[in-house]
Design brief:
A seven-stranded mixed sheet has the order 1-7-6-5-4-2-3, with helices on both faces. A four-stranded antiparallel sheet has the order 8-9-11-10. The two termini are 16 Å apart. Strand 10 and strand 11 form a beta hairpin. The protein is of the alpha/beta class. Helix 8 crosses helix 12. It has 14 helices and eleven strands. The chain is 40% helix and 17% strand. It binds pyridoxal-5'-phosphate. Pyridoxal-5'-phosphate (PLP) binds next to helix 3.
Amino acid sequence: MNFISDNAYGASPEILAAMTGAAAGTAISYGDDELTARLTAKLCELFEREVAVFPVVTGTAANSLILSALCPPYGAVVCHAKSHIAVDECGAPEFFTGGAKLALVNAPDGKLVPGQIDEALTHFWGGVHAMKPSVVSITQATEMGAVYRPEEVAALAERTHARGMTLHMDGARFANALATLKCTPAQITWKAGVDALSFGATKNGAVMAEAAIFFDPAKAGDFGRRRKRGGHLVSKMRFISAQLLAYLENGLWLANAARANATAARLAEGLAKVPGVTLAHPAEANAVFAWMPASLAKTLHDAGARFYDWETAPDGRVMARLVCSFATPETDVAKFLGVAAGR
Ligand SMILES: Cc1ncc(COP(=O)(O)O)c(C=O)c1O
């Protein structure tokens, strides 16, 4: 019963097979290979426009290198106070931007609303004395398991662009969001005003494969050099590109995400029926956050369930974070709910 993270599970056989396939013969190094060219063409087709694509191996690299391209060292990035870039990247966004400031806001379910952009920048009015408002960064699906609708992204983008800023989307769980939304990748990104996307695959079936995507290739600037300088220009890039191609081909990415989301939905539905348990956030993607008595959390841990006690309330209740993946066994959900229900 492992609900610690979607990273806990392995990789899809199709992706492993594609890596094996990429091992045959020879190829040009550092991304000038045929698979990387095919990947770029595939992503242009998927997003219905020319995009600039830069494969990397971690989401932290995609996020912080994109921010470095969009934000000057004296810039401000508006983001959620509990976003991955704010609390889980060891200051990489500040490091790669050369000193940008994160302007933090709190928002229910991790979803920013347009008014919060202005709120976060209230004190950034002092001309040369203040950080320059530069980027708004949102996470799709959010760190709390919720999903932005296209109209919500569009409203944020409108405010962002009106302030002369750019909009970044951390899509570590982009496929999970898309599987819920059932819209096109274009509709939830550039058509809604997103300028750059961290396109994640590792959590949803890849071994290690992410991509930084710029919807206006001109906005990528010197990204190639930034990636090299950041240690993310992988010499055998074809192995990352092979993973991403296999991920996208035949709809594997959305099938994996739909399965993870359905498993999380079953878990959320079952937990909501357990006396004393309430959902802390809507389970719209593949993560479930549930408040429960500390005694129940302990019973579940003792029964072998692995999950994070994410927060503790003043009254002692625990917020459990339970993440499902493309490979979480249904039997684990049934067993977990059985223990929760005292069976
Ligand atoms: C919202 C979010 N963004 C980005 C990442 C990527 O992180 P990593 O650098 O571990 O690949 C994660 C992983 O936990 C995440 O949850």
